[in-house]
Design goal:
Length: about 100
């Protein structure tokens, strides 16, 4: 929830010149979590989306590498993306940042 809040708020906080054409793909919301047919179709299209991506942010938790499609997603990004701008952020980092900001006020 903290990451989603931060990602959605980023567009309103930063000026347009800092984030000119920001498009975000959240695999948990863009890939169906219940219907296996829709889930398979979404997973098969990951490669095409990642090919057009400039960078990838992984919100890492202990669960991340236990799901096959997240391993597939990471492998696809590293294979097809020339920039290889990969950022791995543990899920506790945004919580610590918000706690720090809240304690400052």
């Amino acid at each position: 929830p903290t990451f989603l809040f931060t990602a959605l708020l980023a567009r309103s906080v930063f000026p347009t010149w800092m984030l000119p054409d920001l498009h975000v793909f959240l695999d948990k919301t863009c890939i169906h979590q219940v219907d296996e047919t829709l889930q398979r179709r979404g997973i098969l299209k990951l490669g095409a989306f990642l090919y057009r991506s400039d960078e990838m942010l992984v919100c890492y938790s202990d669960v991340y590498l236990t799901k096959l499609w997240t391993v597939f997603e990471l492998g696809c990004f590293l294979c097809v993306n020339r920039s290889r701008q990969l950022t791995v952020m543990p899920t506790y980092v945004p919580k610590m940042m918000f706690a720090g900001l809240a304690s400052a006020f």
